[in-house]
UniProtKB/TrEMBL annotation, chains A, B:
It is an enzyme of class 5 (isomerase). Gene3D superfamilies: 3.40.50.1860. Belongs to the aspartate/glutamate racemases family. This is Amino acid racemase. Its EC number is 5.1.1.-. It comes from the Bacteria. Keywords: Isomerase. InterPro entries: Asp/Glu/hydantoin_racemase (IPR015942), Asp/Glu_race (IPR001920), Asp_race (IPR004380). SUPFAM superfamilies: Aspartate/glutamate racemase. GO terms for molecular function: amino-acid racemase activity. It comes from Teichococcus wenyumeiae. Signal peptide: none annotated.
């Protein structure tokens, strides 16, 4: 049984469950992957904890992992990029494997035939500040670029907040503009490295951005299906 | 915390989580409703159990309720109409309140201003055989009509199976035809009384069916929000 540590945000983890189902080859209910979703949106804001001394989310995350283990989970997927800033602490506190969303994103880049070059990474301010993507992608031979501070403040952070407040369609324009700026700076692909971002991007004419995209919700769902079937 | 006994099917319960989130007034993650989704698609087929002596799903359902209680749930929502055939047995085995999907559907009829008259109810063969909707809607003054046997075999049952096998768009035509037939027989509204049916209906131009619809996924999500906020 797959354990999904969600609620960060709740729309992203619901979308993860939907995509997990749709991406699973199945003919009937009983062919699908058993899963438990722990959707606790009360987890303190991950970026605020990293950047401005906000409440530590680790006890909340660890409680979710324990709840999922008690429910019978054999592995954990976390459809929130920023929460992976506490990946090592969570791994140290459980004997369950935890799928890493950056590894899943890298596998999706390879699936799309992008095996080197410059990669744009969009994410929360917390994810970028803790350099969640750079070491793992650079070890694979990629060069990582991220939005500039002014773009984060004007486009990416407000776009993520719009999704979290259910104004999904309004999030498209600022998020697509930031992705387009990364393309203009030479990105061969753009990783949507916050699970709210694909929700906003997919709510508009995303093909017009003109660059391959990595949807980290789908990437983690595909990695989860590989775990369940492997 | 809301406990969601899902997986029947898994796409319907994922959609329930998505709609629960989108229908909740919220400005940030922390405004959303904490929930745990138990998505076990291995629960034996509910219609087969009722109609042809298939394996009893009750032990699987009760295990899910117990798992949700252990996770801290304060009430249970079950986004599967047919599973409500075991409602009384589940209620007898737990001290948690279980929201009833037929009550939620009736509340949605009233919300749409439909307070009497003939109502079409679509559902699985199991739901119709056990007359899940008739006593509750008739007690409120409605008259209930359902698809004829030939329509169940040719349209409704195959449409539900298409959703369960992820062929959601293909499910629209047969399900919409069955809903249109109920309208032609004088239904003032049609209750999509199997949580796969709204997924198929919403995948096509459902406004052309020309009759008010009750989406039992949304109806149960709205009832759940009332519970969480009340």
């Amino acid at each position: 049984m797959l354990g999904v540590l969600g609620g960060m945000g709740p729309l992203a983890s619901a979308q993860f469950m939907l995509r997990l189902t749709l991406l699973t080859p199945a003919k009937r209910d009983q062919d699908h992957i058993p899963a438990v979703l722990w959707s606790d949106p009360r987890v303190p804001d991950r970026s605020a904890a990293r950047l401005s001394g906000g409440e530590d989310p680790l006890p909340w995350l660890a409680r979710g992992v324990a709840g999922l283990k008690a429910a019978g989970a054999g592995a954990i997927a976390i459809p929130c990029n920023t929460a992976h800033g506490w990946y090592d602490e969570l791994r140290a506190g459980t004997d369950l494997p935890i799928l890493h969303i950056v590894d899943a994103a890298a596998e999706d880049l390879a699936r799309q035939g992008i095996r080197s070059g410059r990669i744009g990474v969009m994410g929360t301010a917390g994810t970028l500040a803790m350099r969640l993507y750079q070491p793992r992608l650079e070890a694979l031979g990629y060069e990582v670029i991220v939005p500039e501070s002014a773009e984060m403040e004007a486009l990416v952070t407000p776009g993520i907040a719009l999704v979290k407040s259910n104004q999904v369609a309004d999030a498209y324009a600022p998020l697509a503009e930031a992705a387009g700026n990364l393309r203009a700076r030479g990105a061969a692909a753009v990783v949507l490295g916050c699970t709210e971002i694909p929700l906003g991007i997919l709510a508009g004419p995303y093909a017009e951005i003109g660059v391959p995209l990595v949807d980290t919700i789908d990437a983690l769902a595909l990695a989860s299906i590989r775990w369940a079937r492997g």
